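Lab notebook, design round three. We kept the backbone fixed and only want residue identities now. Task for the bench partner: fill in a sequence for the structure below.
Input structure tokens:
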């Protein structure tokens, strides 16, 4: 009996040794893509764990482990857990070149496209494009931006004080700033404490840049130009015929929230765009809800 037991133990030890010696299979990493607008990456595989970072839609993440309905992911230098419900192995299609199908910009070589999801939001996406030697639009910059507090308005619905940004295609001619030219090739005008933009619809100077001292008594209201939002920017040539009450002082300037009718983005982006703009390339800006882009 002891001999049988000893033999059994020996066999068990051999098999146990083989089992222990066999290395575990390393997890094979795979690339997945985010399907949610913004996906939370947590410190553990549950919503009970804190968020360590977030990932935007279509961004790729490295998955090294799966536990239930959660994937362990690596995002840059951070590792955490994300719901596999919002991850897919299917690579997203390349973003559509929104400038490629436009029909009204044949003579232009630089384009700024400001789009929103509908007319009643102040959140916009700003894209810049430039034509290459083959006449094809090439994307230069894509970033978040802001428009009027109440969104967009068509030319027929624009009015002074409506807090809406105008829809349309506009030329660009004058850049401005409170400091020296940051490097733009556009006509650049340095703002002084004397500068105002007349927004009085009853004035003959309506929707023009003027000297406060020289035009005293010729208007009842005007916007001070020497403000932080106008540290750098450019004039969007809207209502150049200066139709009374149709809106004035429409600029592209610095901002991190809704405007009163202008278009805004970070100072870094404003300066980048100013340096990029070239009057020889006939730059234009198109502002529209994305649903109406086909009109251009």
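Proposed sequence:
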């Amino acid at each position: 009996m002891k001999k049988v037991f000893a033999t059994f133990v020996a066999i068990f030890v051999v098999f146990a040794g083989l089992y222990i010696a066999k290395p575990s299979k390393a997890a094979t990493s795979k690339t997945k893509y985010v399907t949610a607008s913004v996906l939370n990456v947590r410190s553990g595989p549950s919503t009970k764990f804190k968020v360590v970072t977030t990932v935007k839609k279509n961004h790729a993440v490295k998955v090294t482990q799966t536990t239930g309905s959660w994937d362990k992911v690596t995002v840059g230098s951070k590792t955490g857990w994300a719901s596999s419900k919002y991850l897919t192995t299917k690579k997203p299609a390349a973003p559509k070149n929104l400038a490629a199908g436009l029909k009204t910009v044949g003579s232009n070589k630089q384009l700024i496209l400001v789009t929103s999801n509908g007319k009643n939001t102040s959140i916009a996406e700003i894209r810049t494009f430039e034509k290459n030697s083959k006449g094809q639009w090439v994307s230069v910059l894509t970033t978040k931006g802001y428009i009027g507090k109440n969104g967009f308005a068509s030319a027929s619905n624009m009015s002074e004080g409506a807090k809406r940004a105008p829809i349309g295609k506009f030329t660009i001619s004058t850049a401005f700033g409170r400091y020296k030219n940051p490097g733009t090739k556009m006509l650049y005008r340095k703002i002084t404490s004397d500068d105002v933009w007349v927004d009085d619809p009853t004035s003959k100077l309506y929707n023009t840049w003027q000297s406060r001292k020289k035009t005293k008594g010729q208007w009842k209201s005007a916007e001070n130009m020497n403000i932080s939002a106008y540290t750098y920017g450019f004039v969007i040539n809207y209502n150049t015929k200066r139709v009374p009450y149709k809106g004035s002082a429409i600029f592209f300037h610095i901002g991190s929230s809704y405007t009163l009718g202008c278009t805004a983005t970070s100072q870094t982006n404003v300066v980048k765009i100013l340096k990029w703009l070239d009057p020889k390339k006939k730059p234009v800006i198109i502002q529209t809800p994305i649903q109406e882009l086909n009109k251009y």
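Keep this in mind before ordering anything: The mean pLDDT is 91.
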